[in-house]
Amino acid sequence: MVDPRAHGRVLREVVFDERAIEARVAELGREVTAAYPDGDLLVIGALKGSFIFLADLVRRIERPLQVDFLVASSYGRGTVSSGEVRLLYEPGTPLADRHILLVEDIIDSGRTLASLVDRLRSRGPRSLAICALLDKRIAPPLPEIRFVGFAAPTRFLVGYGLDHAEDFRHLPYIAELA
Ligand code: IMP
Ligand code: MG
Question: Is-cis flag, bond preceding 136, omega within 30?
Answer without folding.
Answer: no
